[in-house]
Structure formats: C-alpha cells, structure tokens
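Please review this one.

:::
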Amino acid sequence: MGQKFQYDESGGTFFYFLLSFLALVLIPVTIFYWPRKKKFDPEAEKQLCHCPPCLLKRENLKHAEPWRNTKNFLVKAGILMGWILLIFLAYKVSQFDYEMANFDPYDILGVAPGASQAEVKKAYRKLSLILHPDKDTGNEKEFMKLSKAYQALTDDEARRNWEKYGNPDGPGAMSFGIALPSWIVEKENSIWVLGLYALVFMVALPIIVGTWWYRSIKFTGDQVLLDTTHMYYYFFHKTPNMPLKRAIMILAASCEFDKRHNSEVRERPTDKDEMPQLIKKLQNLSEKNKENPLCHPYSIKARALLHAHLSRIPLPPNTLEKDRQYIVAKCPYLIQEQVNCVNQLILLTYARKISQRHLPPIDTIENCMKLCPMVVQGLWEFKSPFMQLPYINEDNLKYFMSKKRQIKSLQQYAKLRSDERRALLKSLSDEEYENVMKVLGKMPLIDFQITVEVLDDENPTEVTSCAIVTVTVDLGRKDMSTVFGEDVVHESEEVPDNNQGGDGDSEVTNHVKRPAWLKQKRGGGKKTKKSSKSVNTSKALVNSKTKPEDSPSVSEERKAKLESRKAKAEDDEDADESGGEESDVDTNENNDKSSGDESTAQKSNAEDDDQEWEKFRKIHEREKSLEGRSKSSHTVHCPYFPCDKQEYWWVYICDRKSGTLLTAPYYVTCLVERETVHLKFTAPKWPKVYTFTVCLRSDSYLGFDQQKDFKLDVKEAPAEITKHPQWEFGDSEEENPVDKADQESEYTTDEDLPEEDED
C-alpha cells in the first residue's frame, strides 16, 4: 500500500489545524486574562481604616487607571470572538467527518444490500428525476452523491471493492494531507508568499527582538536604570560616611526622574511658578549644591517633592501632587538598590579591590534603610512614631509624654489597658478612636530569636578561627492586637522595646527544639548529682562569659579575676566528676548488669535521634531555600504612600564597635506568620571573645527595629587542621606580600589589646 502526500484542496485538514491551535491558545488565555471583578466583602471593608487620607488614597487608586474599563471590555470581546470562531470550526469539522464517514451507496439509492443492477438502475432513474440540478426540486450536492453511489454499484469491480474494503476504489494509498491551502505553493502566488515571509521573519521579528533587547539592557535585574546604579556607586564611593539628608539628595537625583531617561516624567509649565514657592517653605534643601547631577532642575524638583512628602505639606492636586505620587511610588525599589550598592562596595573593599578608606560604615547602609519607612509613612526620622496612626498630630503627642507616664513607643501604648488607651486619646471621637485601634491592632509584633552554631562540625557550639558561623534567625509575626487589654504581659509574650534594642546575651539559644516523635524515644531516667552539678557548673561558666565587659581596654586585675574564676570552675567540675564516679560505683554494685545495658542503649538511641533530627532539619531547610520567594506578606497602613505596600524586613549581622557589616542584608518579603533566615559569616582569625549584633529593620514602619547582641568565643583551630598541607601557602605568601595593616582584625573584641593601646 503506497503513501501519497498532498496539499489540502478541500480545506478539511486546515480546519483541524486551526481548531487545535485556537483551542490551545484560547483556553489558557480565558483562564488567566478574563477580567474579574473583586468581590465586595463587607467584613473586610469594616476592618479598613476610614480616616480621610485613607479614603482619599483608595479613591485615587480607583481612578488611577481610567482606561481599565475599556481594556476589560476589549479583552472580553476578543475572548468571546475567539470562542465563537472555535465553535464554528468545530461545527465545520463535525460536518466534514459526518459526510465522509456516512457514505453508503445502498442507503443513498434506497435499495437493499445485494440488489441487482436492474433494481439499482431503476432507483437511480427515479431519484435523478427529483435531484437533478435542472429540476425545480434539484440539489446539486445530493445529485453528486447519487451519481457516485450509482457508479459504485453498477461497476462490478467497484462493487466488489465496496463490499470487501468499504471503499469503491479498493484499499488505495494512504494519504497525508498538509494542513495548508494549495494556493500557497502555486507558481503565480510565489512572489507574494516570499514577500510575506521576508516581511515577518526578516524585518518585523528582528525589529521586535532588537527593541526589546535595547530596552532591557538599560535596566538591572530589579528594573532600575543602569545609569542610576552607576551614579549610586559613584556617590557612595565618594562619600562613604553618608548622612541621611545626603542619601535623600542622591535618591532624588535618580535617572528615573529625568525626562531624558524616562519618557513617563512630565515637565509642566506651572513648575516655574509653583516650585519656587515650595522651595521657600522647605529648610535644608541644599538647592544651591553645584554637584552634577544634584544641581539639575529635575533633581531639585524631586528633592523638594520628597521633602514636602516627609513634612506632609499639601501640594496643588493637579500638578505637583501627581508628580509627588509618581516619585514616591518609585522610591522603595530605588532605596533597595542603594542598599545593594553599599553592600557591593563593602564586599569589594573586603576583597581588597578598592581602598580601605572608601569602606562605607554600617551607618551609611542603615541610613539608606531608614529612608524607606520614612518615605512609606511620610515622616521624618525625628518625628514621633505615633504619627503613623490616623488622627494623631503634634497636639495629641503631649498626652503620651505626660508627667505620669512616658509612652515612647507604639508597643508600650498597645500594652496599656483599654481605659488607659482611651483616656490618652480622649480628644478623639469614638469613630476616630476605633480607626486608631484598627490600625494599631494590625501593626506587627515580631518575636525575634537567634541561634548561633557551626553546621557540619562535630561540636556545633564551639567556634574555631576562620570557621563558617551560621546564625539562624527565627521571626514570628503577630498582630499588635494580641496584647490589647492585658494588664500583665508574660515573659514569653513580652513586647520588645524596639527603640532601645534587645539584650541579646540572654536570648541566644544554642539548641534546636526536636519534634515530639523524637522526644518520646528518649529514656526518662532520674538525674544524678553528677549531671546536676555539671549543668550548674556549665551555667556558671556561660554566665561568666556572657557578661559584658566594662570597657574595651580591660585592666590586668580584671583579666586575673576572670582566669581565676574559670580555673575554680574547672576544679569544681573535676571534683564533681570524682564524686560522681564514687556514687556510680556504689550504684552499680547494687544493680544488675541489665540496667547498665539499658542506659547504654538509651544513650545510643538518644545520639541516633539527635543525628536523625539534624539530618531532617537540614533537608527541610534546604528544600525550603529552593522554593521561590513570595512577595506577599501583610498590607501596610500608609495613607501618604500612593500605592499598596507590603510589609518587608531587612536582617543582617554587624559589628557595632568597628562599624563593619558581616553579612549582606537579607530582604525578608514573605513574613506572614513565621520565617527562618540563615546568615553565614567567617569567624575571625584571632582566638578571642567578640560581640556582634543581629539587626532587624522594617522597610515600612518607624519604631519597629530590633537588634540583639551575641558573644562569639573564638577558639584556636586544631593543629592538625592549621598544619594541613593544603593550608600551607609559603610560596604564594612570598610572591604576594601582605601589608601589616591588612593583617589587623576587621572586627572589635572585648579586649582591644590594652597593652598596645597603653604603649
């Protein structure tokens, strides 16, 4: 049986191609792009703040896209037209298949199977008088089917083929139809086909790809203009120790606000009259700065609008107010780019690719972080955090700072009894006070815990020089409403005073909680004197180590006291061990050998459980780290920010005394209830006790930052590791000599070499 390829002359296979292609495109487009109206939820509406700025913001968001209704109508019309075309093609294909599959010559002629040729001719003459096209009742299509049926039954060979193969032509050849109309390959149409091919694939496609590429190479991965990023690098390298107001100047000089780089920026004729009046109202604007591009008109305008936004100065609604909304909406991701630039400069400095004198201190990157919640809330840093609540102004602040009580933070205000909270805001109406409590109740209450360990090591709690230290930061997020109306706050639910920073020494945990299914396997034996005394001794040692020092330069007497205390604790531990051994001997003489076997089995099971849990925890954390990072957490109450804002956080480790950054700031974007962050850094080379700080900063609220200190007791690395052949770099050190300044520690210890300082 032969095979034959031919173009589709009847158009049947082309219908199949169009039907399958249209279905593959139309179904996902309908699912993802069909416009949906947001369901009105009365309960959710009640939970929203109804202060005038919030109502104005929601109204502006509704009218921010006036063409949205037209766009939705066009999308719906296009999708409906596609479905109508799909139904029409499905009907055409079904009719085509029905005609091909239901060709029966006996049924068409109306004779019984096996009828003679005389009966076939008689039936044909009778039906042809009715269906012939020349007759009034004629039907050309039906007459052609009748003629084909007559030929199939009057020809002996065709009749045998029909009865044997179901086809008058016999088995025939297998035919493959190409789902393209035949006119495409016709000679007279070749010029038009080639012209269309060249227009699509040689002109239109390269132009589209080139335009997309030309636009995409202007931006970084975070959709910030590369020119803006280069400007940030230049100014942060030029001014490493950058104050907050200069960071605002650099932010306002971003190329996103320049019409030469961004066509969305509008230059209004009214700026000549309105901008000088606005500049007169602002202080410390530094509009006479001569640095490029800080002196450009677009930069001065953006800087003035940012100052007006932070000072909450009303602007003309149709001109400067629209420009303010556009500039403020772009600030959060521009500030995140500033943080990334400072972090990269610090990494380059550590890599010795730029001079140490250009190393930005920790204050610079923190000033950039402070700028984000200032822009989101529309407040200066020195303003009271209570002004983030609705209806709170300078007149209401005096009640929080009365002689009876000093309420400095929102957390302290939330812990008050309901009658005390209401008394402080007695000037507000009941409706206004209700809005205040709605906003306060949805603000974050963060449980901030840290764990310091050395993973993949035999002793994870012991830190040796140059070891990779992992600080696990556990963040638990609750609403502030969880502490409303409580007279006494338990220690486990204590609200941290974020303005002062937490005392991290007592908060650092060195063990990870095991699940209940592992705890049930442990044997519950009684504690012996040996174990209790050793625990008390270890606690005394930990407490002695975690006490902060009086000053960086410790006297010789202080050192001697610390050494004698450690020696005494070691002697007590040895005495406890000897006493414990004697008690163990007496106990073993009275017990059977089976008890010793059981204790050994329990210890081995406990060790196996620890190893099993550690593997399980690492696998779980590794799988979680491979998952995509969400950008949804909690909606921020920010009536002066023109867009909806999600609640994000920065987490990093730094050395406060030396002002250095140890880890890159990790941007937490998915803190809904709980989130775990792993921060890793290399331990210092010199064996000493170091004090580091884990910082948590909000990019949305003022007064919610936290920090915790932890002490890192760095031990000297074992000799078999330090003297390993792969660590010996004698030749390379001679080839690349290191300066004495580079050998000094970049960290600050509790004992900053007092002898050298005295000399």
Summary: The chain is about 50% helix and 10% strand.
